[in-house]
Each structure stands twice: as structure tokens, then as C-alpha cells.
Amino acid sequence: MPSDFRPLLWLLKLGAIVNVYLITSVLGLAVFDLHVVVPALILLGVSAFRCLFPNRYLDNIVFHDSPASSIFLTRLLATFSEVAYIYQFSYVIRVLNAESIDWVNALSWWMVAQVVISQAFVWSAILTKRLNLYFYEELGWLIIFAANTAASAFLYTVLDAAGPGLGLLLLNLVFGAFYLPWQVLHLRSLLAEAHAEPLPGSAPCHWRQGLRDAIHERNRRTDAKAWGGLIGLTWMVAYWVSLIPLWVHHIACVVSDRSS
Distance between CA 260 and CA 248 in Å, rounded? Predict the structure, then answer.
């Protein structure tokens, strides 16, 4: 792994083109199911922006020293996109839950509730600079996709025939099989960072100071450590360019087609 991510961060900008292409594809659908199309457009638009102005909340790391790289601005946009795409995923569970099994629907709505809880943790972490709060935010994501995987596993066993719906459930299961172990490793790395010696300016603070720093402070760095190393790089590419954008696009197309 390179010690300097500068070339990789420049290459990341190509992800904006990928996201714009996916946006035009979604807008070109003959039939819209707004429950999946609107979340997809929000996620894809925010992902394109993050490819152009990448940053990392820990220590206010940015690639470009620009107001567009503001941690506050990025987190504000990400709050809407994360709630939106988890709502999309939860909606898929309810659509495929043809028998309206109560505990399956309850798990799908818990996914939405949990992502809102995770937003509270990440905002608290940013505003107070208490790194342990990032751990609880990411623990929430583990819970979200554990619920998504459990509901999908059950529906996969009871769905009668093969088809697009079965394919969506299979995607959930494959993702869960890889993501859940990866997230455990991610949580371990966050714990290690939280217990490490804080850098100057990153010690816990009052929320007003944290807010000012989130809006104005930008530490321009390109070294691999500042961006979370291999785990950080994998997360950026999967979340902003490849896995999640392609997934929400696929859901928008499949579910909208089922509604026609």
C-alpha cells in the first residue's frame, strides 16, 4: 500500500463521473417508484460531491483546502444521504415481505431508527471531538446491516419463485457476508484510534468550539495514515464510487420496474 494517497485521491474524482452517469440512468427510468428513486438520487448526488471534495472527520482531514471541503458541509449532506439510502434498503424488505410478517417489518423500520441514532453519535463525535463516539456510530451500522441480513435470509427461504426480488435478497446476503466481518475489523481500528494519544487540536472540547472547527478547520494531508490506511481507502471507494452507488441504482431500477 502506498504511503501517500495523493494519486489515489485524484483518481477518486473519476467516481463523480460514475455517479453522474448513474443519476442520468435513474432519471431515464420509464416508471418511478419514489420510495427508491428519491433516495438513490440523494445518495448518488452526495457521493459525486464527496469524490470531488473528499475529507475525513477525524482531525478534520481534507484533500483540498477549500470551503467545499468543510467537515460540517459534508456531514450535513451525508446525514441526508445515509438516512435516505437506509430507508431505501428498508423499503425493499417491506416490498418483498409479501405476507407482511410483523417481525420482518419491525426489523426494516429498526434499520431506519438505527441510522438516525447513528447520525446523533457522529454529530456528537464531530462537535465534541470524542473519538469513542465514532465507535458507537459505526456499531450502529453493524446493527443496521445485521438486521438487513437477518430479514433477507428469512425472506430468501420463503420466497416462492426466482426473480428480481430474489436477486435483491441475494445481494443483501452476499453484502452481509463480507461487510459484517469487515465492520468488526473497522470497529477494532476505531477503538485503537480512540485510545491513541490525541493529536494537537483533537482533544475533547465544547460543542461550540467543535462546530467552529467543523466549519472552518481544514488539515490538508495526503499521507495514508491520515486517511485511515487500507480500511479508509476501501471504505471511500466502496461507499462513494462502486458498491453503494451501484447498489442503490440497481434497487431503484428493479423496484421501479416491479411497480410498472
Answer: 19
Q: CA separation (Å) from 88 to 3, 46, 185, 200?
A: 37, 15, 26, 40
Amino acid at 153: A
CA separation for the pair 253, 32 (Å, rounded): 8
* Cα maximum dimension of the chain: 59
Name the phi and psi angles at 196, rounded to 5.
-75, 165
Q: Which helix (H) or strand (E) holds 219?
A: strand 219-220
C-alpha–C-alpha distance, residues 146 and 142, integer Å: 6
Give the domain 6-259 fold.
Rhopdopsin 7-helix transmembrane proteins (1.20.1070)
For the stretch 185-232, pLDDT in tens is: 889 888 887 666 555 556 788 889 999 999 999 999 999 999 989 888
What are the tens digits of pLDDT across the range 63-104? 999 999 999 999 999 999 999 999 999 999 999 998 889 999
Q: Where are the domains of the chain?
A: 6-259
Interior/surface letters 172-182, b for 16+ CB within 10 angstroms, e for the rest: beebbeebeee
179 to each of 18, 23, 111, 127, 138, how far by Cα in Å?
22, 25, 16, 28, 12
Phi, psi for residue 72 in degrees, rounded to 5: -60, -50
Q: How far is CA 230 from CA 52, 121, 163, 165, 240, in A?
A: 20, 24, 36, 34, 15
The grid coordinates of residue 145 equal 446491516
Average pLDDT value for residue range 3-18? 96
**C-alpha span between 49 and 51 (Å, rounded):** 5
